Amino acid sequence: MLPAFYDEIFAVTGKPKTLLDLACGLNPLAFPWMGLDGDTTLYAYDIHEPRIALLNGYFRLEGLPEAAKLQDIAHHFPEEEGDVALFLKEMPRYSRNYGNLGRPLLEALRVRWLVLSFPAVSAHGGRKLDGRYREFMHQLIDGHDWPITEMLFGEELVFCVDKSVNN
Ligand SMILES: C[S@@+](CC[C@H](N)C(=O)[O-])C[C@H]1O[C@@H](n2cnc3c(N)ncnc32)[C@H](O)[C@@H]1O
């Protein structure tokens, strides 16, 4: 599903020249399916050191800037400017572990577009979570006039948030 996933997201956000991937895990290895240009910069943040070393090794092989960073995004919000920031499959845990940091993180990111994803169904199967996470997403940016585009890919619920309306 990766090509369709990124095609549909970037059809909304535009194709980023600079992409941030927060709490990235191994997601940057999906770069070949993102349909992005070879001169893209992909800032990738994670707290797992071997993962960051692997990603920079991979970026080197792709001829991309070695922009994977060992960074705890709860203690140091990313400061790099970009077009799009991905925060996939991690906001529920981030909010659970770090309390109210979700909203200030989203506000601080120096990007036009935020792309967050959540499970639409519980891991044990069966229980629908889309309503709960839709409400959570709207709470996170409550008071900001930031339009949201929602998409569903299998059991992954994605929100593209346009921060360009600056309030
Ligand atoms: C569920 S995985 C999500 C990976 C990726 N976003 C994806 O969609 O495949 C969570 C990742 O977040 C990283 N992580 C957890 N807390 C973090 C923090 N405070 N700062 C940076 N990365 C963090 C973990 O090391 C792990 O690689």
Describe this structure in words.
With 167 residues, this protein is an alpha/beta fold. It has helices at 2-13, 49-62, 91-98, 102-108, 130-140; strands at 18-21, 41-46, 68-70, 81-88, 110-119, 148-153, 156-162. The chain is 31% helix and 26% strand. A hairpin with a 2-residue loop joins strand 6 (148-153) and strand 7 (156-162). The longest helix is centred in the first third of the chain and has 14 residues, at 49-62. It is globular and about 40 Å long. It starts with a helix and ends in a 5-residue tail after the last strand. Bound molecules: S-adenosylmethionine. S-adenosylmethionine binds at residues 23-25, 27, 45-48, 72-74, 88-90.
With strands numbered from the N-terminus, the spatial order across the biggest sheet is 3-2-1-4-5-7-6
Enumerate how many helices there are, as a single number. 5
Over all CA atoms, what is the radius of gyration? 15 Å
- Decide which structural class fits the backbone: alpha/beta
Given as residue ranges, the uncertain stretches (5+ residues, pLDDT < 50) are none
Sequence of secondary-structure elements: HEEHEEHHEHEE
Helix content: 25-40%
**Beta-strand residue percentage:** 25-35%
Distance between the termini: 34 Å
> How many β-strands, per DSSP?
7
Short description:
The protein has 167 residues and is of the alpha/beta class. It has helices spanning 2-13, 49-62, 91-98, 102-108, 130-140; strands at 18-21, 41-46, 68-70, 81-88, 110-119, 148-153, 156-162.
